[in-house]
Amino acid sequence: MFSEMPRRVAWSAAWRISLWGTLAFSIGTLLVFVFLHRFVADDMQHRNDAWLWGAVSLLGDFAERTPKDALYGQVVGEIAELVREEVPNKKRSLSNADDHVFFLQEGEDRSLKLWVGAGAGEDTLKAIHGSRILPDQPIDLRVDGMGVPFRVVSIRVEDGSRIYLGLSEEDQLRILNNFRFYFVLLWLIIVLFGFALVFSISRSLLKHVQTITDAASRIGRSDLTTRVPTTSRTDEVAHLALTLNNMLDRIENSMHQLHTITDSLAHDIRSPITAVRGRLEASLSARSPEEQTDSIASSIEVLDRLSQFLTDSLDVAEANADALRLARSEVDLEEALASMIDLYQPSMAEKDITLDFHHAGPVTISADVGLIHRMISNLFDNEVTHLPTGCRVMVDLRPEDSARLILQDDGPGFAPEIIQHLFERNTKGRDSSGHGLGLAFVDAVVRAHGGTVIASNPPSGGARIAINLPLSSGVSGYSRGPEVVDQVELSKD
Questions:
Q1: Are 380 and 344 in contact (CB under 8 A)?
Q2: Could you tell me the sign of the dihedral formed by the alpha carbons of 35, 37, 43, 45, in that order?
Q3: Quick count: other Cβ atoms within 10 Å of Cβ 268?
Q4: H or E element in which residue 307 lies
Q5: C-alpha dihedral sign at 325, 329, 334, 338
Q6: Is 361 exposed, middle or buried, given 0-12, 13-18 or 19+ CB atoms closer than 10 A?
Q7: What is the spatial distance between Cα 206 and Cα 232, in angstroms, rounded to a whole number?
Q8: Which DSSP string do the residues of 92-160 spell out, in sequence order?
Q9: Residue 378 and residue 339 in contact, taking contact as beta carbons nearer than 8 Å
Q10: What is the pTM of this model?
């Protein structure tokens, strides 16, 4: 029957779970039964031994007190008959005392002196002579012609004879056999019912897993809109379905971003490449070395801008896909700002911009130092590019619950039509000549480091960008020292 069962069912996970679970339960219950059977058998034997020792002691006492005359055998025999009527655990409806108990007295010459029991006593005495019966220890004795053994104890009396009292183990064996029969019957019923129950539950549970697998296998490279079915349950299978759907959402989002990036890059780099080609062709037909040098230099400048544009675009895409790779180290944000301010002094001097740097000492964060410098560079590039001449830029760095960096100017502020989309790719004002990646890159770097960034137009005018970055885990606290204000007057002179 098993060989005819479909392979998919015979070797399914539900079948294996049910089989191994039932096997473990079966072995466990069998071990419990063995222990329980042993306990019951030992308890019954202990009770029988106690009765035998009490009865044989009583018979020995009567045998010693009874005069050794013609009535000795009759008196002791009657006492033995009375003792046999008190057999423990005897099922009287099935048998009588003659079958369950015997009394045998052996003389000093090892001959049969007195016998009370079923049949003749010679066979029993012969079996006793063939066994080693210790004075203080009951033994199991098998007699020819008897189907079940006897539990036998012995005691020596003063006249040198020995008294043997035997109790049949038929009732004990019958009880234990019934116990084993009903246990096996009940055990088989429970095992079969348990197997069916476990198999039904496992198959029902794994059926949903198979449904998820089938749905996942139908999701092709070009079709990422399909989702695996979910249920209202809160078990591990439902959690698996939700996790797969979330993963598919991220994959679909990443593919959408990839398509958007490739389309955008194809559109945005077409013009720079055409310009570079035109200038290089012009350098080939230049009349003088100076003209050729100018064309090549301008081409290199365009290629540098194109390289920066590609780098920023890829970084923004990776950050949006939560895949931006960080080489973290301990970074002093105050030192990074100071070095970038020194770098941008010449550019700001061209537009007569004043920069106030408010800080209270070192602020340590765990970050990628290269990305942090590029983030600050993009912020300063925006100020240099979009601020009119003679404006003021205020940079404030404070260690609060996080490293808080505020960049504020007194310029015209962000255009109302783009303020809600400042951190999206390709967002730029009408008069901007850039690619709209500066603030998108800033947002990508901040989010990759677990921080937040907010841009706004304060009521007092100008533009304001507030950045919060987590402090380094090695910094347990911050003792604020005296505030330092670095005012950098950047003028053409």
A1: yes
A2: negative
A3: 17
A4: helix 289-320
A5: negative
A6: middle
A7: 16
A8: TTT--HHHHEEEEEE-TTS-EEEEESSS-SHHHHHHHHTS---TT--EEE--TT-SS-EEEEEEE-TTS
A9: no
A10: 0.46
Token pair 């296998």 is at which residue?
217
Dist CA 392 CA 369 (whole Å): 27
Q: Helices 236-268 & 170-217, crossing angle to 10 degrees?
A: 20
CB 330 within 8 A of CB 362: no
- Do 322 and 450 contact (CB within 8 A), yes or no? no
Count of residues for the chain?
493
**Mean pLDDT per 10-residue interval, the chain, length 493 residues:** 44 76 88 91 88 82 70 64 61 51 84 80 85 79 84 84 85 88 91 87 79 75 70 76 82 70 64 74 75 77 73 67 75 90 84 86 88 87 85 89 89 79 63 63 86 88 90 54 48 39
- d(CA 452, CA 47) in angstroms, rounded, equals 82
Is residue 421 within 8 Å of 388, Cβ to Cβ? no
Q: With contact defined as beta carbons under 8 Å apart, do 227 and 240 qualify?
A: no
Q: Which phi and psi angles does 203 have, rounded to 5°?
A: -65, -40
